[in-house]
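Postdoc handover notes: sequence design on the structure in folder B. Input tokens:
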């Protein structure tokens, strides 16, 4: 096992809890951590507990009035009158007790990962609770109260003057991060996502390229609905090495939402577990080639908490720790422990048998449209 990777983890992450019927369910972290354990991928010394982010750290990105309101709302027994103006109390982001504390622990977990990597304690670090990429400066959005990705980037810019490559492969556009650094040429944001024609947040168009000195440093690849593994990976492998080598980052931050999977209930992409081995593998290689290994990973979306998230983030951790996993049966102990609680039969193997997946009749058309999109996405991006 590589001793140069850290997992930022605590069961306290489950305190970020909207309500039992909400699709954002942090029990997925318990499932993923348990699966990593059953595979023998976790040594005790590789785990770091998260810390709470300070108000000053959160304020690197978020308005202090917003931070104060989140605190007050989290300590109120009823919804406060101004909640809606801050994006709270909505169907997506309901108010819940101790919101500030729960979210600042996630932000602090990502900063813990950053500190470990940037201070040389570890080459790589993964905070699976992170990836809350939709929150804006003064407003919650898309299940996200604070934006740990944006705070982490601002923190690296402030303390290390780092050039940051942010790669977001969540099925939903990484809008909050893009807009936070839209005019900054020292932060290159790359987002692969399902087109906003059909999916929240409706942004991430090809024309969103940055502004001012940051023009060309926002790169969006809006994928056609029902995109499958082959087309997704073709786009990813063609673009990412070129922009990474052209940009020459000091550190890579990847947002690893796993809601592009065919099982995900909120999206319309049709990928399998295969992409969740390939995505971190390329990021890992580029981190060593360009950044002396500096790679911070966070979680993100993923709403099939039983069949998708644990396998996807176990594959990420196996890549990060140089403990490659091939296909094979999932550990019996893990399946037996969780099956009674799952609404679905748990997968039997690490990778998917895609034969039962619904056939995609427009596969050739989707692939060609994605290629045209990629060509246009690369027009103004830094290329190596």
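Designed sequence:
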């Amino acid at each position: 096992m590589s001793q140069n990777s850290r997992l930022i983890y605590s069961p306290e992450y489950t305190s970020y809890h909207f309500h039992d019927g909400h699709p954002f369910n942090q029990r997925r972290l318990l499932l993923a951590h348990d699966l990593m354990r059953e595979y023998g991928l976790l040594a005790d010394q590789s785990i770091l507990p998260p810390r709470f982010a300070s108000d000053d750290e959160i304020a690197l990105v978020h308005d202090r009035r917003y931070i104060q309101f989140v605190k007050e709302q989290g300590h109120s027994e009823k919804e406060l009158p101004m909640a809606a103006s801050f994006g709270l109390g909505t169907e997506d982001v309901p108010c819940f007790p101790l919101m500030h504390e729960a979210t600042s622990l996630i932000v602090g977990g990502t900063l813990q990962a950053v500190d470990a990597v940037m201070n040389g304690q570890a080459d790589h670090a993964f905070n699976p609770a992170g990836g809350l990429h939709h929150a804006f400066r003064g407003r919650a959005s898309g299940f996200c109260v604070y934006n740990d990705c944006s705070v982490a980037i601002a923190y690296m810019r402030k303390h290390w003057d780092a050039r940051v490559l942010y790669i977001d492969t969540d099925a939903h556009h990484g809008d909050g991060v893009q807009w936070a650094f839209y005019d900054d040429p020292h932060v290159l944001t790359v987002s692969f996502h399902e087109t906003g024609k059909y999916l929240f947040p409706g942004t991430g168009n090809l024309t969103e390229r940055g502004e001012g000195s940051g023009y060309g440093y926002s790169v969006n690849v809006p994928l056609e609905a029902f995109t499958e593994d082959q087309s997704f990976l073709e786009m990813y492998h063609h673009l990412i090495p070129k922009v990474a080598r052209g940009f020459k980052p000091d550190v890579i931050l990847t947002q690893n939402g796993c809601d592009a999977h065919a099982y995900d209930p909120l999206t319309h992409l049709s990928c399998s577990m295969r992409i969740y081995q390939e995505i971190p593998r390329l990021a890992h290689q580029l981190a060593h080639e360009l950044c002396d290994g500096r790679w911070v990973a966070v979680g993100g979306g993923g709403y099939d908490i039983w069949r998708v998230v644990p396998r996807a983030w176990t594959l990420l951790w196996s890549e990060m720790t140089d403990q490659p996993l091939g296909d094979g049966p999932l550990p019996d102990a893990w399946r037996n422990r969780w099956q009674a609680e799952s609404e679905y039969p748990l997968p039997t193997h690490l990778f998917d048998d895609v034969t039962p997946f619904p056939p995609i009749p427009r596969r050739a058309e989707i692939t060609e449209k994605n290629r045209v999109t990629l060509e246009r996405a690369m027009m103004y991006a830094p290329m190596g």
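Context for whoever picks this up: DSSP finds eleven helices and eight strands in the chain. Don't rerun without checking with the PI first.
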